[in-house]
From TrEMBL, chain A:
Belongs to the binding-protein-dependent transport system permease family. CysTW subfamily. It is found in: Cell membrane. The chain crosses the membrane at residues 12-37, 75-99, 111-135, 155-179, 200-225, 257-279. One of its GO terms (cellular component) is plasma membrane. Coiled coil: none annotated. Residues 75-276 form the ABC transmembrane type-1 domain. It holds the Pfam family BPD_transp_1. CDD domains: TM_PBP2 (cd06261). This is Inner membrane ABC transporter permease protein YdcV.
TrEMBL record, chains B, E:
It comes from the Bacteria. This is Spermidine/putrescine import ATP-binding protein PotA. GO terms for biological process: quaternary ammonium group transport. It comes from Roseibium album. Its EC number is 3.6.3.31. Pfam families: ABC_tran, TOBE_2. The gene is potA_4. GO terms for molecular function: ATP binding; ATP hydrolysis activity; transmembrane transporter activity.
TrEMBL record, chain D:
Belongs to the binding-protein-dependent transport system permease family. CysTW subfamily. It is a multi-pass membrane protein. This is Spermidine/putrescine transport system permease protein PotB. InterPro entries: MetI-like, MetI-like_sf. Pfam families: BPD_transp_1 (PF00528). GO terms for cellular component: plasma membrane. Residues 68-275 form the ABC transmembrane type-1 domain. Keywords: Cell membrane, Membrane, Transmembrane, Transmembrane helix, Transport. It comes from the Bacteria. It is found in: Cell membrane. The chain crosses the membrane at residues 12-32, 74-93, 105-127, 155-174, 210-232, 252-276. One of its GO terms (biological process) is transmembrane transport.
Length: 286, 373, 334, 290, 373
């Protein structure tokens, strides 16, 4: 039966399937994480014994991630980029939510679809198209006015902008969904009780949206942190962690330090995810 | 500025158009201080629109609204001293009870100590002294209701507006809250304007009720007036249950008259006001089920029954509903007449029995036929 | 200020950077790893901005500069060219002089050739041996221009000579493509970076491959059976250079870095990381001991004489080669 | 209150501004730029002319459109697999798991999101390679006699891609199925439907918006993915994004790359348009809802 | 196999545990063919659980369920000829009305022509012949209701289960649907099992009602039996309104007895069944408001009032509610007693008047105190 919980063989098989699926989900992460503790120069079998050197080692060849300045720098840039991207995306997501839930204007449906579109454009193409536009503009300005617009050249700003271009869709959808559930009479009640427009926004509407904004921010942060396709084309000399790791893997050679970073990221993201769940729970309490 | 300053709320020819829809049409009324006023009408008749104009969420297309004698047309909603209890209450889920009640006071810049005092005071008055620290979702439906009222009352409004506040509650709770609301209004002695489409709510609680239909007020009066002396057929049919006959006036004077129904039965009525029905005009006769006595054909007490109107029939079915039981009688002309009966379980009427239906002409309400079905 | 290097993986070891920063406390070094193609693509996108020092191979500068104007001329007076191996310096200068301005000086040189596990593939001697059915499923190559050139040589052609006649070059490429497509069945996988090559080789999943010598030397460290094999057609030699992007903003720091890494004590550190030979006088002697051993195990004197330096790529060739590579990749074989 | 109307209009403009800036500057203009660029033909160094040469090049070269078709068909396969594998999981989470384990299972589903594409591929490489964990495990169990290479082939690419995108299939499915009243399923049985009938006539039609949303996102992500097919693919596995990358990076042919980019966008949009037509859904009630 | 094959549905000691929660405890009943049977009880008493067991969605922890005399314990839900109308109807939104009704027939492999005939037939019978091509969201609440019933009835079920099907409708519609449902049941002449927590629904429609409380059936009987002769205090208080007094039995025999209330008032009662209350035991007395007559203290008709019980008091307030008006009388001992009155608008009672409350001992229902508040 499709809804019942009777202990039939069918249900047993179903459960096994679900377990197998989660093993499938966890397998590559476990393998990527586990080799961080392999006392070997290569992230491969055979198992050479347990070590924490790939985290804390401070000498070559087992330079741990916490002593590897390039990785740390990548981590730092990833962090900076993700912070900006999520702040910007949450802001625009919030204004979009108000625009599409509260606003009445011609072509609303069309614009709504436009808002969703960036999510389905391949990341590579988003990256390239923004790169092309930015460099064409910069070249034009340079040739024409002999002015170097450095911010249009690959670098942190373009990466932020490129990631923002599709992450804003995600945050918009999340926050819009929440705002749709908002009972507008709540705002009227606040007006009625004597609050000014600004106060209503500050004390009623935004607090109601807050869980969605935080959740959207966390999602934006994670997606930015792990983005590769779009970033690849827009990155300048300040490479975020994924790019650093890719360069390391493709151009230098991987050591278990990459596994250590992976492990570190898993723990970090796991904690963030847990945080967002806690916020979610707080929300369901209301 | 105004003729009578003892009215808390006055509406003068207020109307509201949404594009071509005339939601409210030239409504005028005034409510004396401290009274409980209800607006009763079917869904979509414009009740909420009228209330939102009073609260300031909509601008009237015409007319004037005065509170304590002063026109409030230019006053934004957050500056009107009219508070509102919303249908779904609109309590703020992100604040606890204390903060919900304190919200309006904070908006007015009241000091913290004063807020504390006032909030606890109002919680005492609604008999919920201990819930200040509760979250909203920890309250029962009836408690929420009272908090929503307290949140308004703590601001000492001139008028409290309530838009179907019991609509979301379940049956038993609704019954209980009806009486409670009335008590709270006594408590605070503030003018309540209460919107509902449930006649029993309006009748039980109000000092005065306005019956609204298609954007207009059909009648304003005390519950008894409306029930016993409706001035229009709409009021007669909307307030309370009725049996209805169409007919033609045979004879009439200022005290009443006689009608022949479409089925050919004679029926007498007393005139409701001073109006004299024109002979030969088409009319509708309304008779409430509780005023029709059903007596067994064989029984000898027919003489007792003071009633100029009489009809014979057969019991079709009994709708047993405890104290509100009803009998459906099929008359000779085939129509079904409803009449209230008390079924005690002993010697009750049974389907198939021959009965007489008897009622006084005083209880026959007669209205000119408006041409509507 | 910041010195932003655009260079090869391992061309800026941490140890060296720390030393440099200690010497010039007001300079921060920031490194982006790249390869020849990406360096050009990046600098093209930035119009030569965003980096202060790039390190393309000597043959990849001329055409890119002509087409995209991404470098600026060097001020040779700020570089201590006297320490450089004259032959390499002259070669690079010759290849990268445009309108009388020099755009690059050499830094490290090395070769591309073959790598083999002596015990399992003792006879791997020619580029063509990668396609030897004896090693079916146990060889690898990188699908880039090196293997095109190597295969051309193994087929008796001289691709560098054909650069002047692009139609002829196209003819060679077509033949090479045909050969390599045929060879696909013999290949286990195309490697993409030093990493997957090392993993396959060390694990024994393959026994021979086209390779950079430096990668081979590193593996020699791990497994003395894995050696660099200069192909009998001659190993292809590259020289990685120093070049200044057109909008570099820290030229002084860049020159400081160039001079710094050319100092003998730093050369050893650098070579230890890169596995390649510094383009300074006696560069081979400045190799760390293990690398020296690996080089000696790999090269004889005549191998060195037989080196074929990559010739300057004229405009258009990269596109032709790129398309040939795509064709090979897309072909279904093996 | 005229003033009220003005405030409304003003706030509408203020809200519209960020949206317009975002969509125009970051989506529309860049794509117009791409179209313009793709219409340029390189005649000689630093000399360009407008023409359809880049598109003709694509049409005339079977390598390119073969790769595009291959990318498209493999993406469809991955989408179908993700749906087949993901639907029962989503159903389990939404309808069978107790309310308490539901949140936990959903969280578990999000685990692959915790790390980047790169690390996921990296993990698969460690598992699948000839000397990797799976091969060794099978050797140890004696199921195989000598190491087997699981990496560097299309199956590895499909496994890796399915793994990467399945989450985006499950999430919208769980949310639509969650919104489905259990009574609807029970009514399906009560009226005499078998498990299969209920699935086919009630559950699937009900979940259709979620299915379509999941398929669109999954398909687009797959077709646009870069790292996974590159890292897991073998000598015959080419992917269209790799082709685009090569045009831009290896061949410095931005014009061709732009044309390829537009072609990929056009092709995937076409597939999605067809899918929407066939399923009778619209973009607004599927992707936008999830 | 079974004793009496004319029962459509029998439950024998059915029980259901969810972990340690005993949702249904040893419930037994049987429903004769073609009757309307209601299960009435407060929220959470186990009604839905019981119904789900009958439909086959839950397996009983114990007992047996028989349909048309055959045990269905092993029969999966889609093979039981018991159809169900769900609380929120569970119409399929992705199908139109025709497909919704045809669904069950298709599952049974009925041919297309036959399906067409049957669907139009059933639409005729529910008086909605023209809605076949409508989408579900184009129907009104009452229409949806009828479609949900038609969808089941087209399959000719042995038993139709309805789980609070009117719960989601608004007041007026609910009133109208009550009568309509009863008519539909007559129409189809199928056994209906109807679940509700609204006593008026159960009383008006049912042939028999079971009162359920905390997983158990407290009483099964006709509406009149339950209302007039409740067998437990729970039934007395759950069905209909009551005034309640606690007291101690002073004297009693098999026909009735006398009680002294906590306030010290004497009160007499007739015994409901043959049970004799023990003298000195604590009991609760229930009296329905409609059986208490309120008469003016000055009025001479007190003698008329056949009633062994009498109480004096002052009118506290009048709750005017048309035919269901009520008076609250504050008695000498301070408590409020509710009594139904008919307010005609002429010569009615007014707050402050002295009145007597009179009722017959026959109408005093007496139950032993269970120790619950
Ligand atoms: N913003 C609006 N725009 C257009 N028409 C409106 C608007 N608000 C209300 N109406 C229309 O005005 C009429 C009165 O609506 P209103 O909400 O006041 O009715 P109501 O009496 O409160 O009904 P209910 O009892 O259902 O709440 C309806 O016909 C409604 O459709
Ligand atoms: N699946 C379940 N698991 C655990 N407890 C359950 C489950 N279903 C019902 N219960 C419990 O069994 C009791 C009876 O529930 P049921 O839904 O039958 O009540 P009900 O009479 O239908 O109430 P309502 O009128 O509110 O619908 C309740 O205490 C409920 O919490
Ligand atoms: N130019 C080739 C460099 C190789 C780096 N390992
Ligand atoms: Mg309303
Ligand atoms: Mg229930």
């Amino acid at each position: 039966m499709l809804v019942q919980k009777k202990a039939t063989p069918f249900l047993l098989g179903y459960r096994l399937y679900v377990v197998a699926f989660f093993i499938f989900l966890a397998a590559p992460l476990i393998s990527a994480g586990a080799f961080a503790f392999n006392d070997s120069l290569f992230p491969a079998l055979p198992w050479q014994g347990f070590t924490l050197d790939w985290f804390f080692g401070d000498t070559e060849p087992k330079l741990g991630m916490f002593h590897d300045r390039r990785l740390l720098q990548g981590l730092y840039y990833s962090f900076v980029i993700a912070i900006f991207v999520s702040a910007l995306s949450v802001f625009v997501g919030t204004t979009n939510a108000f625009l599409f839930v509260r606003g009445e204007f011609p072509g609303k449906n069309f614009f709504y679809i436009m808002m969703v579109v960036p999510l389905v454009i391949p990341g590579v193409i988003l990256g390239i198209s923004i790169l092309v536009l930015a460099s064409d503009t910069a070249n034009y300005v340079e040739n024409r006015f002999d002015l170097e617009l450095e911010f249009l050249r690959p670098g942190i700003l373009l990466v932020v902008v490129g990631q923002f271009s599709f992450i804003a869709t995600i945050t918009s959808l999340v926050i819009t969904a929440r705002l749709k559930k908002f009972d507008e009479t709540m705002e009227e009640a606040a007006f009625n009780l004597g609050a000014s427009r600004a106060r209503v926004l500050r004390t009623i509407t935004l607090p109601f949206l807050r869980p969605a904004m935080i959740a959207a921010g966390i999602v934006a942060f994670l997606v930015s942190f792990e983005n590769f396709n779009t970033t690849l084309f827009l990155v300048g000399s300040e490479a975020p962690l994924t790019i650093t790791m890719y360069d390391r893997m493709a151009k230098v050679g991987s050591t278990p330090v990459l596994n250590a970073v992976s492990f570190f990221l898993m723990v970090g993201s796991g904690l963030l995810a847990l945080l967002s769940i806690l916020i979610q729970r707080d929300r369901s309490g209301q | 500025m105004t003729d009578n300053p003892s009215y808390d709320l006055e509406c003068l020819d207020v109307s509201k158009n949404f594009g071509s829809i005339r939601a409210v049409k030239d409504v005028s009324f005034d409510i004396p201080s401290g009274s409980f006023f209800s607006i009763l009408g079917p869904s979509g008749c414009g009740k909420t629109t009228l209330m939102r104009m009073i609260a300031g969420f909509e601008d009237p297309s015409g007319g004037d609204i005065r509170i304590k004698g002063k026109s409030v047309l230019g006053t934004p909603p957050n500056k009107r001293n009219v508070k509102m209890v919303f249908q779904h209450l609109a309590l703020f889920p992100m604040m606890n009870v204390y903060e919900n009640i304190a919200y309006g006071l904070r908006c007015n810049g009241v000091g913290n100590a004063e807020i504390k005092r006032k909030v606890h005071d109002v919680l005492e008055r609604i008999a919920l002294p201990d819930v200040a620290e509760r979250e909203i979702h920890q309250l029962s439906g009836g408690q929420k209701q009272r908090i929503a009222i307290a949140r308004c009352m703590v601001l000492d409004p001139d008028v409290l507006l309530l838009d179907e506040p019991l609509g979301a509650l379940d049956l038993k709770l609704r019954e209980a809250m009806k009486i409670e609301l009335k008590l709270l209004q006594h408590q605070f002695n503030t003018t309540f304007v209460y919107i509902t489409h449930d006649q029993s709510e309006a009748l039980v609680m109000s000092d005065n009720v306005a019956i609204m239909n298609q954007g207009e007020f059909e009648q304003i009066g005390t519950p008894q007036e409306l029930y016993h002396h409706p001035s229009t057929a709409f009021v007669a049919s909307f307030v309370g249950d009725s049996n209805r006959w169409s007919g033609v006036v045979k004879s009439s004077d200022s005290t009443g008259g006689k009608v022949e129904t479409e089925q050919g039965l004679p029926m007498s009525f007393s005139s409701a006001g001073e109006k004299t029905m024109q002979e030969g005009s088409r009319v509708n006769i309304f008779v409430r089920p509780e005023f029709i006595r059903t007596v067994r054909a064989g029984g000898g007490d027919l003489q007792d029954a003071a009633g100029e109107n009489r009809m014979d029939g057969i019991v079709d079915s009994l709708l047993f509903n405890g104290a509100n039981s009803r009998v459906l009688v099929r008359t000779g002309s085939g129509e079904l007449v409803e009449s209230d009966v008390t079924l005690t379980g002993e010697n009750d009427l049974k389907p198939g029995e021959d009965v007489h239906l008897v009622w006084s002409s005083k209880q026959s309400m007669c209205f000119a036929d408006q041409g509507k079905a | 200020e910041t010195l932003r290097l655009l260079t090869w993986g391992s061309y800026a070891p941490d140890e060296l950077i720390e030393k440099f920063e200690a010497e010039y406390p007001d300079i921060d070094v920031e490194v982006t790893f790249s390869n020849n193609e990406e360096m050009i693509a990046k600098l093209r996108a930035t119009g030569g901005a965003g980096f202060d020092l790039a390190q393309p191979s000597h043959d990849r500068i001329y055409a890119a500069q002509l087409e995209y104007d991404i470098y600026k001329p060097l001020d040779l007076s700020k570089i201590d060219t006297s320490v450089m191996e004259a032959k390499l310096l002259d070669g690079v200068k010759e290849n990268t002089t445009i309108e009388g301005e020099v755009y690059a000086v050499p830094h490290q040189w090395g070769t591309s050739g073959l790598m083999a596990d002596k015990t399992k593939a003792p006879d791997l001697k020619s580029w063509a041996d990668l396609c030897n059915p004896a090693y079916e499923g146990k060889t690898s190559m990188r699908l880039k221009r090196t293997i095109l050139l190597g295969t051309a040589f193994s087929m008796g052609e001289d691709p560098f000579a054909a650069y002047s006649d692009l139609d002829k070059y196209q003819g060679i490429l077509d033949k090479v493509a045909e050969k390599l497509i045929e060879c696909k069945g013999n290949i286990k996988a195309y490697w993409k970076g030093g990493d997957d090559l090392s993993a396959m080789m060390l694990s024994g999943e393959i026994v021979g491959s086209e390779t950079w010598d430096s990668t081979a030397y590193k593996l020699f460290d791990q497994n003395k059976n894995i050696v660099f094999v200069p192909p009998k057609e001659g190993a292809l030699a590259w020289i990685d250079t120093f070049a200044l992007p057109r909008k570099a903003k820290a030229d002084d720091a860049a020159y400081k870095w160039i001079n710094f890494v050319l100092r003998p004590e730093n050369v050893t550190l650098m070579s230890a990381s890169t596995g390649a030979i510094a383009a300074v006088k006696g560069g081979q002697d400045l190799l760390p001991e293990d690398k020296k051993a690996a080089v000696n195990a790999a090269f004889t004197a005549e191998d060195i004489d037989n080196l074929k330096f990559f010739a300057n790529i004229p405009p258009g060739v990269e596109d032709m080669e790129g398309k040939t590579l795509e064709k090979i990749k897309a072909a279904t074989g093996g | 209150m005229m003033q009220n109307k003005d405030i409304k209009r003003l706030s509408l403009y203020l809200l519209f501004a960020p949206f317009a800036l975002w969509i125009i500057l970051l989506v529309i203009l860049p794509h117009i730029g791409m179209v313009v660029l793709s219409l340029k033909e390189k005649i000689a160094p630093r000399v360009y002319e407008y023409s359809f040469a880049n598109y003709l090049e694509f049409l005339n070269e079977p390598i390119y459109w073969n790769t595009l078709l291959r990318t498209g068909s493999m993406s469809l396969l991955v989408t179908a697999l993700a749906l087949l594998i993901g639907f029962p999981i989503a159903y389990y989470i939404a309808k069978i798991a107790g309310p308490r384990s539901r949140g936990g299972l959903f969280l578990l589903c999000l685990i692959p999101l915790w790390v980047s594409d790169l690390i996921r591929a990296f993990g698969w490489i460690l598992l699948l390679r000839e000397t990797g964990v799976i091969s060794n495990f099978l050797l140890w169990t004696g199921l195989i006699g000598e190491p087997v290479e699981f990496l560097y082939n299309d199956v590895a690419v499909i496994v890796g891609l399915t793994y990467t995108v399945i989450l985006f299939m499950i999430v919208p499915l769980v949310s639509t199925l969650d919104g489905m009243d259990n009574a609807m399923i029970e009514a399906g049985y009560n009226l005499g439907g078998s498990g299969f009938t209920v699935l086919r006539r009630i559950i699937i039609p009900y979940a259709m918006p979620g299915i379509v949303a999941g398929c669109i996102v999954t398909f687009m992500l797959t077709a646009g993915s870069y790292l996974t097919p590159i890292l897991l693919g073998g000598k015959n596995s080419s992917w269209f994004t790799e082709q685009i990358y090569n045009q831009f990076i290896t061949r410095f042919n931005w014009e061709g790359g732009a044309a390829f980019g537009m072609l990929l966008l056009f092709f995937t949009s076409l597939v999605i348009w067809l899918g929407l037509k066939l399923s009778g859904q619209t973009l607004a009630n599927t992707v936008a809802k999830s």
